[in-house]
Amino acid sequence: MKLTFFGTGDGRQVPAPGCHCRACLRAIEKPQYARLTCSGKITDGLDVSLIDATMADLNQRQQAGSFERIFLTHYHANHIRGLAAYKEAEHVTIPVYGPEDKKDLEDVFENPGALKFQRPLVPFKTLNFGGLQVTPLPLNHSRPTFGYLFQQHQGNLAYLSDTCGLPSTTSAMLYGYELDVLVLDCTHPPSHQADQDHNTLSQALAIHHDIAPKTTYLTHISHELDCYLLDHLAELPDNVIIARDGMQITL
């Protein structure tokens, strides 16, 4: 099983529009430090699943017909904008899985084109796709949101973007689970006032400590956090890694 990060940034991305902070200037000068909006794909043999559809050019990155399904974490506009190109795909049907949330989404559901929206997922109810098991995990966000636990015989990986802390039910499931990889929302530097949608670095490290995965990859990173990490990266635990666009994790 392999996870590929398409994007590891927050909704503003890095460089953020009009910003001239150290992190944004670095990303302009050195594109390897740029961040697109958080998304990725899971590959299990020949089976490919997309996680979110944040990029308008997603169809150019992953052609319709080259993957089996899409898992949406939630229906904020910046996480579904890439669906539009797939609606017009021919000779293919694309199953789309996600939480129950119909607010302001009439056009998405009533004119799906090639997209085939599945019944809303049930928290903690595992789906089986050949050798890949996928379990939706509730997260703390401003609209219904899931993370996903991906499991197969070679290992397991939890992808938890767009959350502030974790619901007690999700924490209880993952606590002591012997998780190989945790991919976790970490949007803000420690000094940032906590909000309802995204973790600060302090919150993310507390989750890492409690769940105790073998390795944690931080994602959904803002330019403010990148600025902070320019001076504090060495302070992170050895098994906490800052994810980068294009990075791949293989189990």
TrEMBL record:
Which GO molecular function terms does the record list? phosphoric diester hydrolase activity
Entry-linked Gene3D superfamilies: Ribonuclease Z/Hydroxyacylglutathione hydrolase-like
A single GO BP annotation from the record? organic phosphonate catabolic process
- Note the InterPro entries from the entry: Metallo-B-lactamas (IPR001279), Phosphonate_metab_PhnP (IPR017693), RibonucZ/Hydroxyglut_hydro (IPR036866)
Q: Which domain of life is it from?
A: Bacteria
Which residues belong to any copy of the Metallo-beta-lactamase domain? 61-221
UniProt xrefs under NCBIfam families: PhnP
Q: What is this protein called?
A: Phosphonate metabolism protein PhnP
| Gene expressing this chain | phnP
